UniProtKB/TrEMBL annotation:
InterPro entries membership: DUF1444
Name under which the protein is recorded: DUF1444 family protein
Pfam families for the chain: DUF1444
Highest taxon listed in the record's lineage: Bacteria
Amino acid sequence: MPEKGLTLLGQEQNVYPVLRHASIAEKFPGRFVVRDHTADTRVLYALDRGEGYVLIETGMLAQAGWTAEQLHQYAMENLQKLPYTVKTQEVAGNRIHFISPPDGYAASRILLDSLLRQFDREKRGDSLGVAIPHQDVLIVADMTGEVGANLLARLTYDFASKGQVPIAVLPFFWEDGELTPFLVVSHDGNNKPKHK
C-alpha cells in the first residue's frame, strides 16, 4: 500500500514508466495505472523517491487530477532525459548491445521508439531483436539468422532467471515499431525461431 499522504501533485518530474509481466494487472485488478504493451507485458508507472520508487495506484492519479495520458506523457518525457551507455559484445557475428544504467529504468528504454529505430538503422544483420528479461537491463541484438535468434533467446532466459523482478522470458523481434515475441524451438538439431 502507498504511504499515507503520498501524492503526485508537484511530482511531474519524478514519474517514470516501468515494465512488468502482464500477470500483475490480473493479480491486482484496478489497483495500478496500467497501459497495454505486448501480450506478455504491461507498462506501469513509478513515483521516484530517490532511494527507490513506488508504483502509482489509480487512487493517486485521481487525487492529483491527472489523466492516464498525462501521466504517460510526463513519464516518457522524464525517461527520455535519463542518460545511459551502451555496452556491445560481438558473438558469432551477432552484435549484442546491453543497456543497464543503475537508475532502475533500463528495461523502460524499450519504450523509446527513436532509440530502437537508431539501432535498426545501424544493424548489419538481417533482424533486430530486443529483450527485457528484468527491469535493470534492455538487450538489443543485431541478429543474423537462426544463430542470432537462438543466442538472444538463451541470453533472455538466463537474465530473467537472475533478475529480482522478471518481466519477459521471451525476446521480441522489432520491426518498424512492432514487437513480436518469439520462441526458439529445437527440432531435429535445427533451432528455428517461431513467432508466438
